[in-house]
Structures are given as structure tokens and as C-alpha cells.
Amino acid sequence: MIPARVLWKRETAASRPVRIAGAVMVVNALLLTAHLLHRSGFVLDPDGGSFSLFRSSALWNGGIDGSLMELFGLLQLGAASVLLLYLGLRDSAHRVLAAWGGVFLLLIADDLFRIHERVGAHLALDRLLPSLGATTAQELGGLLFWAVSGLVLVGGLVHLHRRSGARARTESWALLATVVPFVLVAVGYVLVGAVRPGLFGGPWGEVAAMVRITVKLLTMTLLQVRAMRLRGTPL
Q: Transmembrane region positions (predicted)?
């Protein structure tokens, strides 16, 4: 018979990711609300002083680099990366998990150092296609950078996926399913903005941006929770 103390420790370890996920979701909701209030002031009252507390600082704008929302999301993604690297490197049958951790670290580096934005600006696609605006050309150039880089990263993931154990492969598929919705939303946002640049103006633009940043933030939360659950269960 399993001692009560051992059962209590197991239940506590199993419930810890749930409690942390609950706390993280509360912070997510607060940051998304702050972003909405920050942007609503400009849309609903461009010349007034509504929502002055949130309008006073760009830190509340989750759609820009360096915002509180972006930093909180990167913190979650960083935690997921470290846990996946730990799980993947301690056993050769789990190497694909380490590969996922490495990919997420690259995403963090890209956000912090604006790598794809700089590459996109350097490509200067607006010189080849004068009809493109500078911002659209930069975004398409960044998308091209990720398309090329993605081929290399996917190749590495597929190679290690095949060499990993059955449980690690199952978790790898789950990580892919978690990431795909954000990738589709992010790519769709850039492509639609390039094809119909006027579509994202005004309120519709705010709605589209809100959807994009919400999906991005929740994706990072789900990745963190999944990595924590993996850490607490034997592979």
C-alpha cells in the first residue's frame, strides 16, 4: 500500500502545472485587457484623454517589441525551452524534444534582436516590387527569411523525430499541433496585409492585431504547460 505522504507528494506534483497555468492565464488576461484599453483610447477617442493610464506608455501595447505582453510571453517560451532541452538531452531517445527547445530559443533570440525584421529590411523587396510599401516589403522579407530558415529547422526536427522513441515522437506531434495555429495566423496576417494593405486599417486592423497577439500569447502558455507536464511525468 502506498503511504499517504507519497500520494500527497504525487498529487501536489501533478497539480502544480495546473496551478501555475491558472496564474499565468490570469496574467495573460490582465495584459490583454491592458492592450485593449491602450488601443481603444486611440480608436474611440483619438484626441481625448480616455484611458490615459494605459495610453501613457507603449509598454501596454502587446503588438510592439519590448511590450510587457511580449516579455511575459517570451518568459513562458523560455521556460518551455529550458525544460524541453533538459528532457531531450538527458536521453538519446528524446532528442527531438531538445530540438524543439532549440527552435524555441531561436524564436526568443529573433524577438529580442529583431533578426527577421532586420533581414527583411536588408532584402529591400520594395526595390524589386515598387508597388509594395516599405513596411509591407520588410514584413514579406522577414517571412521569406523564416521560410528559408524553416526548411533547415524542419529538416533537423524530422531527422531527430525519426531517431527518437515512441513517446517522444508523440509529444513532438503534440508540440507541432500547438505551434501550427500561431504560424498560420502570423503568416496569414502578413500575406493579407500585403495583398490588401487597406484591409487592416481602422477598427478591423485592431481586431486582426488582437487576434494575432492573443494567439501568440496563448501558444506560448500552452507550450510552457505542456513542457511542465512532460517534466513531471516519466518518458
A: 20-38, 71-89, 96-115, 143-161, 173-195
Closest-CA residue to 160 (of 168, 78, 224): 168
Place of cell 511590450: 67
Burial class (CB in 10 A: 0-12, 13-18, 19+), 209: middle
Residue 82, C-beta contacts closer than 8 angstroms, at least 6 positions apart = 101
CB 213, CB 38: distance < 8 Å: no
- Residue 61: exposed, middle, or buried by beta-carbon count in 10 A (0-12, 13-18, 19+)? buried
* Lookup: cell for 45: 477617442
Q: Cβ neighbours of residue 70 under 8 Å, at least 6 residues apart?
A: 62, 64, 111
> What pTM does this model have?
0.89
The grid cell for 134 is 516599405
